[in-house]
Each structure stands twice: as C-alpha cells, then as structure tokens.
Amino acid sequence: MLKPRLQELCICRPILEDTLIGKFLCFLENPENTSHAYDFTAGLIEKAESLGLSGNILRSYFLHVLAHVENTFACTVEQASGNVGKSLRRAFVRDMEILADVFHEPPSAMLPCDLLDDYEPTKRCTNEASSFLHERMASAASAEEVSDAFLDFYQRYGCGEISSCKAFSWNDKEHKLQGVEHFEALPLTDVIGYDRQKKQLTDNTEAFLEGRPANNVLLIGARGTGKSSSVKALAHEYYGRGLRLVQLAKSQLGELPRILAALRRFPSKRFILFLDDLSFEEFETEYKYLKSAIEGGVEARPQNVLIYATSNRRHLIKESWRDRDQAQDELYRQDSVNETVSLSDRFGLIITFLAPDQEQYHAIIAHYLEKEGVRLAPEELRILAHRWELEHSGRSGRTAQQFVVHYLGQMRK
C-alpha cells in the first residue's frame, strides 16, 4: 500500500493544518488501524458532497486545499506576477514530487476502500477556477508540469477566497475582505438595450485590466434601468482575467484606507470598489473619504483599484435651500455649490441610463419570456405590458422583470 510522505512537505506545509488532511495523516501513521481510514473516508465523502468534488476525490480535495490555503509559492506568484525565483520553484517542485502519489494514484492504492476512486457527487462543482486547475492537472505528468499548472492557476486566479469568489464585501468587525459565496449577476447580454452605455463601461474596464489608463465611473439615471446589473455583470464577465468586485455601503467609506491597504496585497488582480445607489444628504460628511480616495489624498490609491458608483441623481450631494438663498454670503454660497457639484466631477467617466422607451420596454419583456420558453403575440404583449406599466412604477428593466415573474407565476398555476 502506498504511503505518501506528507510530513516532509515544506512550501505546502500549511495544508497539514487542514482537519481532514490531519485525519489522513493519522491513518498514514497507523495504517493497521482501519478506523482511521474509514473516519477519513466518511469525512472526504462529506466534503465531496458539499464542494461538488468528483472522480478521484482524494486528489480533488488536495487540489481544493492547495487552491485555498495560502503558501509562500502562491503568495510570491501573486506579488511578483509569476516571476518566481529558482530556489523557491525548486522547493515547490519537490513538494509536488511528495504529492505525486496523491495526484496520480487511485485512493484505493492508499486506503482499504474503493469508494473514492471514481465518486459522483449529487451536484458537481461548476466553479471556473476549479475547472481550470483540474484541466491543467489532467495533462500534467511530471512534478515540473504540476508546478507549472499551479503557477498558472495562482497567477490567473490567486489563492484563497480571492481565487473562488467573484465578489467581496468588507467585514467591519474583522477589517478584512469577505467573499460573497452566492453572488448573483446577470450576463451583460441580459441587460437589454443600452449598447452604447455597456460599451463605454466595458471599454473602460478592459483598459483597466490591460494596465492602460482608465477612469473611475459614475452611472446615473432612472431607477431600475440596469446600472447596478451592468456593473455586477463585469465581475462575471472578467473574472478569468483577474477582476474582482468589492461592494461597499456608504457607511463603510470611513474604512477606505484599510480597504485600499488590503487590496494592495493582490497586485496581479484588479478591483472595482462598487458603491450602489450613492447619494449624500447635506449633513452627511462621508463623501470626504470618497473624494480623498479618488484624488489620492496623502496615500495614493493603488493602481489595481477603480471606483464605480451608481446613483439616481447627477449631483451626489444634495443641495440645500440654504445653499440657494441669494441672501447668503456669495462666497459661502459659491463654495457650497462647488462642493455639491465637485464630487460627481471627480468621476472621469459619467454614463447616463435613461428609462426605456415603449419599444425597448417590450423587447426586455420578450427577451426574458423567451428565456423561459414563452412567446407572446406582439399585440398581447403590448396590452399586458402597458397595463403592468400603468399599475406599477412606469417603464424600466426592473418593472419588465417583475412583469415576467408575475406572468410566469400566473401561467404555471
């Protein structure tokens, strides 16, 4: 029976702290105790079901842990854009030689059980990063080729949550990024119409990804027109090229210095700080943190960070009647108005989303119905859509989707 020398790992030693791999070690140290073997097998099957691991799930689980537990090689790949020193690479190749049995042999060659050789979970993992790593490993025979596969993976996707999550939030209590496990984003093709606006957005984002000059973006316009959906779609569209979305609440703007410091740790990734439905009342001062971040303040904003915001109004800071009062000191009044207008002007690219016209509104409804296999006659669609528009909040992409949900729900009674 094969016995991998896991205790000799060097660069990848942090994986030994994983609870399940610890159970595997217990079995390797006491192979005559089959209780350890079945304890590990039960735990591995549980992981296979929760993570969607398939095939040789001993190998799949080790790949999962290596993708999510940081090690010196992975961190150096991130910091040095893949230019790893010869000595570090040699040490990592040595670890891949130690793990060769895990990667290339069936679990039944190491464990008294054949349940793990070709396991089929109830629901397979469909994660893009995981699929990339498994595809690269399928053609990697030598330790050097396995090392190359991991180098490409770490460079493209990173290590830890940054590799598997497209979007993040900021944990105020622990002052760290937190992956959004169930991130829902429409593809850009589902934002019907607005072709010019989407092109402006994608052109700017692609320039950012390619290291060319790119602007912070403010998307303004009527509610429900697809501003937020368009930004979220970028995380889905460009995930494989290193783009990640960090969604922030207005109340978290005071945390921007900490957030920017955290994002500096990932120079090979590109981050969009996303502020949705942004506006400030006259008494709110959080906007000063945002202005400082955009302008560079004392500490420059990292080159791998841009700020995208959406708003229903062109001027993000509400202008008070006091600011408009002609009786006020003219210098004070001018300063107040400049402050009100200047925040919007800090965004280099302003994209406007207008409410859809009748034809576009009908096209949005038809698109979502067709995705569900439903086609309405043009006249029927026009009558039903117009009735819904009058009874609800007018024409928008959001009300179009709400109509489709209502129609499908009634149709399928």
From TrEMBL:
SUPFAM superfamilies the UniProt entry points to: P-loop containing nucleoside triphosphate hydrolases (SSF52540)
Pfam families tied to this protein: DUF815
InterPro entries: AAA+_ATPase (IPR003593), DUF815 (IPR008533), P-loop_NTPase (IPR027417)
Domain AAA+ ATPase residue range list: 213-333
Entry protein name: AAA+ ATPase domain-containing protein
Source species of the chain: Selenomonas sputigena (strain ATCC 35185 / DSM 20758 / CCUG 44933 / VPI D19B-28)
Lineage of producing organism: Bacteria, Bacillati, Bacillota, Negativicutes, Selenomonadales
